[in-house]
Amino acid sequence: MAAPLVILRNIHLTFGGTPLLEGADLSISARDRLCLVGRNGSGKSTLLKIVAGMIEPDQGDRTVRQRASISYLPQEPDLSGFATTLDYVAAGLDDQRPTSRALGLLAHLGLDGSEDPAILSGGEARRCALARVLAPEPDVLLLDEPTNHLDLPTIEWLEEELDRLRSALVLISHDRRFLQRLSQKTLWLDRGEVRRLNRGFGEFEEWRDNFLEQEELDRHKLDRKIAAEEHWVRYGVTARRKRNQNRLRALHGLRKDRREHVGPVGNVKMTHSDTELSGKLVLDAEAICKSFGDRPIVRDGWVRILRGDRLAIVGPNGSGKTTLLKLFTGAMKPDSGVAIRGSNLQMVTLDQRREKLDPKQSLADALTGGNSDQVMVGGKSRHVMGYMKDFLFSPEQAQTPVGLLSGGERGRLMLARALVTSSNLLVLDEPTNDLDLETLDLLHELLATYEGTVLLVSHDRDFIDRVATSVFAAEGNGKWTEYAGGYSDMIAQRGSATDPYVTETTSPKLKATGKRPSAPPPQPKRRLGFKEKHALETLPGKIAEMEASIAGLRSDLANPDLFKRDPAGFQAKASELEAALPKLSQAEDQWLELEALREDLER
Question: Cβ atoms within 10 A of the Cβ of 330, count?
Fold first, then answer.
């Protein structure tokens, strides 16, 4: 077996009095495909910087194989000192690699090489930095949230590019689909230590949950052992006996282990503030058109959104997703067409750039408005300190300026602000950026219980699959199409992922050929079959009969004299009830599925 390219041993690092890494170990070998996961603030980015040699640990050893090259993609790259984006990318190449490699990567990432780095947006700067680390094809490639600010076609291109590379990869990402496709081993940074699973991310979460359950079981066993030993100390110790002195010392050791045990970091607790329901109709857009100059954003767009719908808007960068949100919410007027919004709408927006956060404002004031130390959550008043803890903020951070928070912490703060406001319409523009996987899980659970309507713009395929009831996809040249279901359902219906919604500015294939890919052939209109219609009409009556029968059985079994009088009859009714309950549940599920299908087809 070849020697590892990079080895970290017993790494310790402390920031501001709080230990961040405590004895962390890491080994990276040739062609490794590693994903690094952990809570926001657990030290993932810091660990990558130690691997890259950008940070010196307080204690521990870093060993790099001779002549091994390492490239690191930071979350906030610095492009200062370069005249063009091509100059910046080419500076990362050695003499043996042609500039064409840099130009090709820039083109795939939506840049042409002539841009001035000083005027790039944050997303453009990250794409340029991604081209720079990919261009030399280093021995070790360290990528910190590489999919942030990338659209879906570019993410899928990046997956293919990384899969082709011979470099060892270490990935930090919140995109589950991205990690599942590329990772072969998983590194879990938890409470200062790196735990390694020699399987990909797809099997990580079950392994992590089992680990935490076993850890909790071990803690309970330790508590019980300490309690038993303390009972012996009170009632059975004899100081003159040497063996009892040894047992007493062992008890002190158990207590020390219990004190020093650090449990897992608490979970984010999310609740939302309910308000009155909106009207059944949330938005009815008919033949809306919007253009900027000669560039169409939407042409002859039609969409109907009802209360409770979760509509995801997807498309390449520059296709007009955020503009479409503004048209839907009334922040912008269409050039033509009609967009009718429903009654009693109370909207809360989570914007992708965190623009509504004042960097000089303290964390506590950002939640309360600066006028109180209380927040209203779910109709109840709560102290801001307790609400902060629900989102993993410590009391010591209450007066921390928002500008000093990390990207993940700002994301959690925006969520906390959005969820404390009463609403029946949530508008989420890239809500998953910078959030850790556990927070994403809890956001999904909250949206599942949210009684209002959700408008979502996201490039996270897994999150769209979990949340969306329909997808509004850009097809190019101002055309948009609504597909039932999530992202995977959209792919199944349209037959491909990215080709149908390329634009002139983002498709290398279109630039090369000048031809737009043909749209998939129209699918025949789906209708309810005879059996489905019959079941939809007859199931409510059958369900009512089954419910009445079950109620009768329960009433009979509740009679205390039945078992004494007729044990066999009691057992027969109990067996009948046991068999009837699953049949009722199955009938209810069948009716709900058919009713949902009927509503989708009518829409």
Answer: 12
